[in-house]
């Protein structure tokens, strides 16, 4: 090849990225570097390191949306530089959030007139939404106790032991005792009867979950409401209900419209839902709506002057992106009831394909229910020689991310694997996953039992091997023991 001109040192075109000095040195990890690097190099280096992350589409651990239409991606990118809190400057964005609140409140059957505006707010996710709902209950209860001249320093919330970690956060951050109804083998949600028994005069609310994180099951909110109505009548209290519909709030209205779990029940005063789960928006949006204005104490609301009009706000943080609000509005009007129903029905059908495929192997007990969030939670029928954690580790080699975790008290001896079915998990992928799980089971059958029992400080490895092998197994056993302990928190 003949070069038309000799490359000079300054000719950057010959400095191929992968021969440049930037990829020859290790990257700073603790201190910000003194000098700048070219943007191409920064992009390439970071992009390459990120290749080692899992593939979000194959991350079956999460309810959170991993695919949206390209048109919506475009809207998101064009609003990526808008700060949501600048309501004066971006009045249309504010208007879109208000429309979303109205639509969601109507979806949950809030007692509203056709054109009446709803009480609610967009949040970063259900966690922030739950903090806000919890604060409203706490303040309302305190105000009432103060007015009655009664002590108001020991508030509590009654929940099932299956609550998501954000409730524990709320309890600790805002000093409310969490009274958890224990689970039992074969029953993995809050028992309404036991919950109502635990209610006392200091209970600020009972939190029911529509779509337990652990197995997708809907708690019986109607029974809870009916039992609580009776107890309230007997005691003179007015203990309310909050529904944590983080995952189920966009499923029940479309798949089970007859199911009464929402504002149709008189004691349900607030509901949260994650826009970024089955609301079908990328991570970063949740919603909380209240039944009536009276359910949100006025002193928690800050009033921002917005184009001469009053814009009430109730959030924990100030600045945040606008893209997710806009994306939520896109989904609501683009899909409508018809579209959401189609997506949810499709998810449920793929859940059935996966569940039947797993049942056919004869190796698993299915722990999830037919009615609920479309997911399959399953455990080994025979875990005497291998565990669910080994399946989770081994399926990762095929690219799939399927978490395994133990159930909360008193069902902690049960371990389950959980596959969440999202919109972008097609039937082909469901069938493919069954084939890959079968392969893993055959591989496990060939392997000696590596089951190790970790109890307290003792770790017993049951296989006799050469010293080297034994040592390696002990190390692996410990690694697994440590990571297993974190695994309950690895689901979201
Ligand atoms: C996911 C989830 C949460 C937390 O929601 P984020 O939107 O991730 O903050 C709370 N409760 C339940 C039942 C959930 O499934």
Features:
492 residues, MYOD Basic-Helix-Loop-Helix Domain, subunit B, seven-stranded mixed beta sheet, 15 strands, alpha/beta, binds pyridoxal-5'-phosphate, Aspartate Aminotransferase, domain 2, four-stranded antiparallel beta sheet
What is the succession of H and E elements? HHHEHEHEHEHEHEEEEHEEHEEHEEH
Indicate the proportion of strand residues.
15-25%
How many helices in DSSP terms? 12
Structural class: alpha/beta
- Rounded mean pLDDT score: 90
Number of separate domains: 3
Low-pLDDT runs of 5+ residues are 454-465, 485-489
CATH level 3 topology of the largest domain: Aspartate Aminotransferase, domain 2
Distance between the termini: 56 Å
Radius of gyration (Å) = 26 Å
- The CATH superfamily of the largest domain is Type I PLP-dependent aspartate aminotransferase-like (Major domain)
Strand order of the largest sheet: 1-7-6-5-4-2-3
Overall geometry:
globular
Using the 3D structure, state the CATH architecture of the largest domain: 3-Layer(aba) Sandwich
Oligomer: single chain
What is the number of E strands? 15
Regarding CATH, which class of the largest domain? Alpha Beta
Sheet of most strands: 7 strands, mixed
The bound ligands are:
pyridoxal-5'-phosphate
The share of residues in helices is 25-40%
